[in-house]
Amino acid sequence: MSQEHSNEQQHEHMNEQTNNSANETHSTENTADMSAETSPETANESVRDFEAELKEKDDKYLRLYAEFENYKRRTSAERIELFKTAGQEIMLAMIPVLDDFERALKAMENANDVASVKEGIELVSHKFKNTLMHKGLKPMESIGQPFNADLHEAITNIPAPTEDLKDKVIDEVEKGYYLGDKVIRYAKVVVGA
Questions:
Q1: How far apart are CA 82 and CA 121, in angstroms?
Q2: Does the pLDDT at position 192 exceed 80?
Q3: Helix 114-134 crosses helix 88-110 at what angle (to 10 degrees)?
């Protein structure tokens, strides 16, 4: 029995040595792997690369932000200038008509002939309308047209004098106008019911 006991002890001792040696090998491999992956040179290089990339992105962001701020400032200044001078062209076109009105008013002070004053006023009115039309203003034709809420503002409804004038514009209280193709003033109309 003592020999069996001795064999068992030897066997256990050998198993312990094998386990210890395997653990030491595994521990040594892990330490080698970790030291290879995170050596100080590699870690410092990774940090430097990351810092360089971060600095580059930060620089790009600051440049883009500054460029956008300059764009906002420039467009804001352009808009202010546009608002200041938007009416300049139309005003320059209206000055001759204003001059004609002033001449007509002076002529009316000493005029004895109503027909000549009327003729002068008609000429100024014609010149005024032509100037506006050259700038894109067009009068809206409403009388006899079907009522259209996109173009007309109904003031009132009255009984249609004939059956064909039902739901059509019978009278125009205030003329409507287009500037180009856009309605800038709706016609105020009376509609047949």
A1: 34
A2: yes
A3: 180
Residue whose entry in the numeric block shows the structure tokens 């256990």: 12
Question: Distance between CA atoms of 84 and 168, rounded to whole angstroms?
Answer: 42
Per residue in 34-50, pLDDT tens?
444 567 788 888 888 89
> What are the sequence ranges of the domains in the chain?
2-82, 87-135, 138-193
Cβ atoms within 10 A of the Cβ of 138, count? 14
Query: 138-193 adopts what CATH topology?
Result: Nucleotide Exchange Factor Grpe; Chain A, domain 2 (2.30.22)
Ramachandran area for residue 177 (φ above 0: left; ψ -120 to 50: alpha; else beta)? beta
- Kindly report the pTM of this predicted structure: 0.51
Q: What is the mean pLDDT of residues 69-91?
A: 86
How many CB atoms neighbour CB 79 within 10 A? 10
Q: What is the pLDDT of residue 32?
A: 45
By C-alpha distance, which of 117, 89, 90, 115 is closest to 103? 117
